[in-house]
């Protein structure tokens, strides 16, 4: 008999057995009669709703279907081997953002931490919480706008060089892989002072394996994406730990990069971070700057290629800035502040195609929301999909309309690409600068024409154009 058929039969018999065990256990299980859990489904035995999520056309569809079927406030599901309450709407976002460290604490799925974090840290959620607290104080401080101003000219210079090398010689380019290359190179320079192409590639090649596999089904078998993510994570970890040790051993360290600041940072008790903590802070920023920011820039350019009127308005604004600059003069903070319409366009692109789906928390006590009890130990998840395209908050939600962000902008807790509350993404301002600087350089030099009109979007850790967003580029003139 065909081995595949034998395998399928064995799997079917195993599943049927587990299915009956599941219902026997379910019949013997009883909650406190006064406890009303959120409506929803735990899905298949052991597998939960992972298969449903995987085969859904998008996370957005998965969320919206369950909001309609179960509750528009909160529903339960089972993902990543955990019981999870999915909070929805602006009230759900507000509740989770407002109760950090009161009812909820930081939680990351083991399937995410194992490929990324140091083994000594990844085994303990307490270690994760410690890192989160360090992040909150330290990263928010160094990523404040006033501390990022100095990097704007360098971002501009790198963007110019990138376009000259990777765009100008060609009539057609694939935007997504090029943007990823740019954002990772920029992060290596600003965070680690690494400029050498081969050294950057030594980090980026295994990093691709990590980001491609860390949100897949955590099956650690040879050839599986998750197995590749673990192998890639090991290579990245070895290289970064080597860099950290070398930096600590330098007698004269004149670098003003993130790594130097991490090695010299101490908490209120005068305690310095160990190598593992430094590594985990660096890797968190690399993931954010590489994956989510790359996706954000890609979809901003996608909409600019699709919408000529929007492109022309952005072009006018950016050319006013360009005309005010001297020959070869780089962008500065004042220039960024003039890019108001451009940022509205970027926000609208992020609303329609958010680069991050949301974030997990863990309940540290029983609590109620919307009349339902969330038991201690359950995981929670706030998501962008329940508000970003909700007509209650954004009329004609599928329409691209940057005017939504004029004045006071959207209602509180409805536009949440960077989260909110104490755990709002500390890299929000860094992402804003990176997006606007790259927009400026592309728009003032090229018009874009999509080559695949209805390109499919696939979902990994962030949404990704299936073909890499190929475009034909039409230069306005010579690069400055």
From TrEMBL:
What CDD domains does the database record attribute to this sequence?
A: CYP90-like (cd11043)
Keywords, A to Z, come to: Heme, Iron, Membrane, Metal-binding, Monooxygenase, Oxidoreductase, Transmembrane, Transmembrane helix
Q: Where is this protein localized, as stated in its record? A: Membrane
The prosthetic group or cofactor this protein requires is:
heme
Listed Pfam families: p450
User: What membrane topology was assigned to this protein in its record?
Assistant: Single-pass membrane protein
Residue intervals passing through the bilayer: 6-25
Residues annotated as binding heme: 425
**InterPro entries reported for this sequence:** Cyt_P450 (IPR001128), Cyt_P450_CS (IPR017972), Cyt_P450_E_grp-I (IPR002401), Cyt_P450_sf (IPR036396)
UniProt cross-references to SUPFAM superfamilies, sorted A to Z: Cytochrome P450
GO function terms (MF aspect): metal ion binding; oxidoreductase activity, acting on paired donors, with incorporation or reduction of molecular oxygen, reduced flavin or flavoprotein as one donor, and incorporation of one atom of oxygen
**What GO cellular-component annotations does this UniProt entry give?**
membrane
Tell me which family the UniProt entry assigns to this protein.
Belongs to the cytochrome P450 family.
Q: What is the protein name given in its UniProt record?
A: Cytochrome P450
Source species of the chain? Solanum stoloniferum
- Lineage of origin: Eukaryota, Viridiplantae, Streptophyta, Embryophyta, Tracheophyta
